[in-house]
TrEMBL record:
Residues 8-74 form the Polymerase/histidinol phosphatase N-terminal domain. This is CehA/McbA family metallohydrolase. It comes from Haloferax chudinovii. InterPro entries: PHP_dom (IPR004013), PHP_domain (IPR052018), Pol/His_phosphatase_N (IPR003141), Pol/histidinol_Pase-like (IPR016195). It comes from the Archaea.
Length: 289
């Protein structure tokens, strides 16, 4: 059996992140539409939406892989394949070890970009040396959220010199940017129908990766973003319609409730008024003397 080429975007943010707004359903739909095999939702220090995305992924023809972008004491770390949130604000090596002990893959995202909580070169080098060259599983050597390619080139050189696998991620915070950068992985002895998250994670560990993130031609970009915008509009229109129907149903229920309540109160007041009138007539009549 020939090797299967799998395309994955391992670094995407959903509305679970404080700085992103799109639901995982929209992200999964976009990933499937542009030909990815998997997309990992890696929200900042929260994992709930990623777990939900991993569960929903097969409905979109994708492999479900949960993950998170956790804040360590040294900077950000991608934890792929974990189902609980790693401890926050702990040293990088301790967090990476925690991830790996639970079967996950620890990837250093956007290294050297200190303005985005990337880990500095010297500190990353110290962790590498202290671990005997095995501090983490891979390095994000292409992050599409950049003004220039300088830091990506530095990351690529660092990874190559120390023999770490390189991966590419879009770091998308809007659905239109999903897949702007992605990682190609060659996996032997597996079919697309039998492909699992463990197959993908093992292939990343082994270094069977190729970075894809070159500048997209303008016509392709236009189609890419226009399609995303159309799907986004359709999604929110559907959600708005469902919300309106729910509100209308709720409003009708409340109107009926208050109408019934009003009728009951009116009946009660009328009954009280009749009783009061009867008592008054009795007091005025000769029978009361």
């Amino acid at each position: 059996m020939s090797a299967l080429t799998v395309r994955i975007d391992p670094h995407v943010h959903s509305e679970g992140s404080y700085d992103a707004h799109d639901p995982v359903e929209l992200i999964l739909e976009q990933a499937a539409e542009i030909g990815l095999d998997a997309v990992v939702v890696t929200d900042h220090d929260v994992i709930d939406e990623s777990l939900r995305a991993a569960q929903l992924a097969p409905m979109y023809g994708l492999v479900g892989i949960p993950g998170v972008e956790v804040s360590t004491a040294d900077g950000h770390l991608l934890a792929l394949g974990v189902e609980e949130l790693p401890p926050r604000r702990r040293p990088l090596d301790e967090t990476a070890r925690w991830v790996r002990e639970r079967g996950g893959v620890a990837i250093v995202p956007h290294p050297f970009q200190r303005s985005r909580h990337g880990i500095g070169r010297r500190r990353l080098g110290r962790y590498h040396d202290a671990a005997g060259g095995d501090a983490f599983d891979a390095i994000e050597t292409y992050n599409s959220w950049l003004f220039t390619g300088y830091k990506n080139r530095r990351a690529r050189r660092f990874a190559a010199k120390r023999q770490y696998p390189g991966v590419a991620g879009s770091d998308a915070h809007k659905v239109g940017y999903v897949g702007r950068a992605y990682t190609e992985i060659d996996i032997s002895d597996v079919s697309r129908a039998s492909l699992t998250a463990d197959d993908i994670l093992d292939a990343i560990r082994s270094g069977s990766t190729e970075v894809q993130g070159r500048r997209t031609p303008i016509p392709t970009s236009t189609k890419h973003y226009a399609g995303a915008a159309g799907r986004k509009s359709a999604y929110y229109a559907k959600r708005g319609a469902l919300g309106s129907a729910l509100l209308a149903k709720k409003g009708a229920f409340r109107s009926g409730y208050y109408a019934k309540l009003g009728a009951l109160k009116s009946g009660s007041l009328a009954k009280t008024g009749v009783a009061q009138a009867a008592r008054m007539l009795y007091r005025l009549s000769p029978l009361s003397r």
